[in-house]
Amino acid sequence: MPVAVASSSQLAADAGAAVAERGGNAVDTAIAAALASVNTEPGVCGLGGGGFVTVWPADGQAVVIDGYTAAPGLGLPGERLGTGGVEVFVDYGGGVRTVVGPGSVATPGAVAALGEASARFGALRWAELFGPVVAAIEHGFPLPEACHHYLEASADCIFGQDRDGWDCLHDENGHLKPPGATIRVPHLADSLRRVAQHGAQEFYSGELGRRIADHVQARGGTLTREDLANYRAKFREPLVTPVSRWQVATNPSPALGGVILTAMLTLMAGEYPSLPSDPVARQIAVQKLVLGYRHRQAGDSATTERDMERLMAGVHRRDLHFLGSPSTVQTSAVDGTGLGCSITLSTGYGSGLMPAGTGIWLNNCLGELELVPEALAGPAPGARLPSNMAPTIARNDRGSTLVIGSPGADRITTALLQVLDQHLLRGMSLTESIGAPRIHLEYDGDSPRLAHEPIGELPANAPAPRAFGPHSMYFGGVAAARADRAGQVQAAADPRRAGGTRVVTV
Q1: Fold of 239-328+390-492
Q2: 3-state secondary structure at position 115
């Protein structure tokens, strides 16, 4: 059975391919590649984060497994909540402020989501999926260029808080290791073996989970043993949008990313006479409407789900007036049966914490100010936090399946929008669609500006431009895999990041 996989690095794609060669299906392949990706891209991601898994079986309905981070603090007195963090400025992508440290660590959900995907849809045993990543960790892996680029801005202010984490990224003189240098993360292979042997629950109620919670507590954070023991991945019904001859499924609220993407896709594909017909002008207009609404409504993470429901209601009733006023990794896999799996995982900008003896970097999802403006406080303990992620699968009436997703913070949805628009609506090839120049509407205060790669002449009424060079990693890193009815598969990875692809025929 052929399997195609695209991921954020060639090492990750090769890990997925190794599992496919042993008889793994698309879900097994995607999980193995995702495990390799999150554990060999230091700074960009780590096992102590959260994410979403979208699966669409060939003979069934699409499903989203919500493994995103949750607000911590179960069992703690109220006065302990919202403490233990420090705001830092990271000179990356134009500069960003974020809150790091022990108080920024939210309850991780990535391992739980991967475990549920394996149990429900995988063909191989859970433990078999860990072989490639454990081997890579034991032998050491090269520091990716993208990771080095981010760590140049963040290694000192974020990733210097725990000795194990600092030592594996720096040389004996205290300098950040260069791109390609061998990275050896202490204790990580042992932690992965424990999860492989004892199952995903080892991360939550086993010895590994206890080490993680106790370390965060000792440092003054709010993640507790109770938070981890009570965490469960949730199965959710995806948002499904008709786009030409395709049905596009992605993650629903309370995540932001899938709803934002769905709203923009609906506006791009639908009959809206007030929107321009020129493709670039329409992209700008749609982004201005939807991202502008999000910008204005981003004041309270507790109201996110209500705000996203209102957004979709307005789009579906064709009322556009109310709209007008790195740190993520992606793996996409599909097999010859049409089974598709899209996995997006993140640790935010990173809390900087690596609990002693684990080798696992923890997230700062409670400190991502663009998603949790109230910083550290967030919603009630146990509630899911907002997310930009949108792992997506599309299927058409001719039997083809497209699996797609991207990292890139708030650029995730606009990157996916443009690729889907060009591939599904305009007939460009998958590789051409991913490589085409991109735009992204961003906000500096209340004034929008248009970040763009070289795209030709912009419309006269376009917002103030902010120019980037070709294929800038600022605009995401789309990874996509596609299968047709005959079982032929292909994969494509974004030239903006050092992504990797493999096609395996067993």
Answers
A1: Glutamine Phosphoribosylpyrophosphate, subunit 1, domain 1 (3.60.20)
A2: helix
